[in-house]
Sequence to fold (391 residues):
Amino acid sequence: MKKVSILMLAGIIMISSVSMNQLNAQNMNEVKQSENRVPAKGFAVHSHDDHFHTYEFSRHAVGDNDVQIEILYAGICHSDLHAAWDEQQEQGLHATYPMVPGHEIAGRVVKTGKNVTRFKVGDYAGIGCMVNACGKCSSCKAGKEQFCENGTVFTYNSIDHYHGNETTKGGYSNNIVVSENFAVRVPENAAIEKVAPLLCAGITTWSPIHFSNVKKGDKVAVAGYGGLGHMAVQYLVDLGTDVTVFDRTEEKRKDAARMGAIRYINVNNKEEMKGLGGTFDFIISTIPANYEPIQYVAMLKMGGEMAIVGLPDKSTLNIADMAFLSQRKVYGSLIGGIKETQEMLDYSVAHGIYPEVEIIKADAAEIDKAWHNVSDGEVKFRYVIDMKTLK
Ligand code: NDP
Ligand code: ZN
Fold:
């Protein structure tokens, strides 16, 4: 009892040191913020083994620098499955439920805060994996907001320390509110139903291709030919490289040729896997399941580079093996910054580079089925939810 009253007294002293005016202004602001919260509806899972359910919630109010976007389309990324199924604990990522996934978002601006300059009501906008960052640290200043030293706010399952530490909710929903700095402009002539996957699958492959300065005539490989992989193939073919694709099904052999790859290798075919040592300048691995990365490192030429973007939970590289394969470089890559995302989007739309999408209705059972197919490798190449069909 004594302790409580001392604490209460300390609290009263602290409150009295803040002016009543300040307190009123703060309270008024909080009331205004909560009154103006934006009602939202979407799809959530409530545990790692749950099915989707429709889910009503609210988003923070549209601040002076924010835009409210009506979501038209949301892509289904394999990362959504890893996150909802809580598969990334070793990377320190833990699932918070209810979880509304979705970080490939295309929509229209329906409201703008008073300081917004880059968007007006009616514009198309895209949102990827991030919704906020400090904008002041060296990573943000270098255009790498995904590594914000003060904590990037990711699009879902992330603590939004700019808005009362609420957990962010993603794009499998009818709207989203973000700082205008985290929305990219989508040209009016874009094939809007195909834009959403560019915001993750597009930028995640575009970024390392450019980081490694891949150029015309290079011999390159894409391991894992799904949502990300088929974007990598298109960017690499567009650059004039010789592209080899590695995947594990025969059905995709024709698709690889159609997209301009010179060779398709079924990783389950031992004969096809022979004789590839030291042949590639650049390899990007998008493989989401456990595999032996060293077999791809061995396929690099000396000085060649391998970018790892796929997120299996247990694949490892033995450092002694790396020593014996001297002077091959292996690095990881996480999405891409906002400026780079805008460049990727403008380039993709101008060059007609889009994902191949299968559009599904905004319906819990349809999303469950699509997830099942992504998990089982039965999608070519990206599911996109038509959020306009949400009832
Ligand atoms: P998809 O499921 O669409 O594609 C993965 C592809 O890899 C499928 O075609 C799959 O084949 C193939 N594959 C699986 N195992 C192997 C193997 N052993 N060898 C060759 N191919 C294989 O996933 P996404 O493209 O959406 O995502 C890929 C990965 O990238 C995920 O782990 C995702 O979390 C991660 N990711 C990482 C990001 C980053 O910033 N680093 C951003 C976004 C995603 P099959 O069809 O037979 O299953
Ligand atoms: Zn993604």
